Amino acid sequence: MLDKNGIAKRIAQEVKNGFYVNLGIGIPTLVANFVRDDIEVEFQSENGILGMGAFPFEGEEDADLINAGKQTITALPGASYFDSATSFGMIRGKHVDLTILGAMEVAENGDIANWKIPGKMVKGMGGAMDLVASAENIIVAMMHTNKAGESKLLKKCSLPLTGVGCVTKIVTNLAVLEVIEEGFKLIERAPGVSVEEIQKATEGNLIIEGEIPEMEL
Questions:
Q1: Were 72 and a residue from 10, 59, 61, 68 both cysteine, which residue would form a disulfide, CB within 3.0 to 4.6 Å?
Q2: Considering the domain boundaries, does residue 166 fall inside one?
Q3: Residue 13, domain member (yes or no)
Q4: Which family does it belong to (predicted)?
């Protein structure tokens, strides 16, 4: 199965030349490290930067240059900085081609829950609700199961929803799945992971058609 970097590396294959991409907090922030050098991509962070680069090497961090998760980042040549109102105007105006988010749960109909666990302290929902309401192409980066081994790909989300019927694709440590009308369609398996293992780890309806290839990383 994949680690967090492996998930990010696979998602990076979904990023196309000329895309404007928003990277959410957590695993999605790693995607910028794995995008091909021969394409031009503009990464946006909702705290007000367009042209975000990979994470800095140790000792080269700039404490004034951070992403929405308060991690230090780099900026590519030509990067621009702006206030949150302008940043969310870009998001709400549908100027982002691809949104990559983490999630606590995803339902088989594409619902996503990623901002709150009742009874636990949270910093706030951030830009997640604006992003899922405005984006047409949403990829979720997540672990297939929680720490208790329970599936996070469900028939119905149990946590408060961030968005309804909005997720298009999910990349986990076990698989790549597309959300279609019937449920989760299995597209690829992580290296060394069997279809049976994915079935066992998926509560929602899993659609398997033909031979399922392994991911190429």
A1: 61
A2: yes
A3: yes
A4: Belongs to the 3-oxoacid CoA-transferase subunit B family.
Percent of the chain with pLDDT over 90: 82
Query: Looking at residue 177, what is its pLDDT?
Result: 98
Domain total of the chain: 1
Q: Which of 42, 46, 108, 203 is catalytic?
A: 46
Catalytic status, residue 46? yes
**Please, is 5 exposed, middle or buried when counting C-beta atoms within 10 Å of its C-beta (0-12, 13-18, 19+)?**
middle
Kindly report whether the global pTM for this prediction surpasses the value 0.85.
yes
> What are the structure tokens assigned to 96, written together?
């982002």
Residue with tokens 């309806």: 205
Residue 39: inside a domain: no
Give CA 13 to chain center in angstroms: 13
In a domain, 76, yes or no: no
| Residue 69 CA, distance from chain mean position | 14
Q: Which tens digits make up the pLDDT trace of 35-91? A: 999 999 999 998 999 999 989 999 999 999 999 888 999 999 999 999 989 999 999
Backbone angles phi, psi at 30, to 5 degrees: -75, -15
Which residue stretches of the chain have pLDDT < 70?
A: 121-126
Q: What's the CA angle centered on 155, arms 26 and 21, to 5 degrees?
A: 30
Beta strands in 38-195 (DSSP E): 42-45, 49-52, 75-81, 98-102, 105-107, 112-113, 138-141, 153-154, 169-171, 175-180, 183-189
The residue range of the domain holding 20 is 4-29+84-207
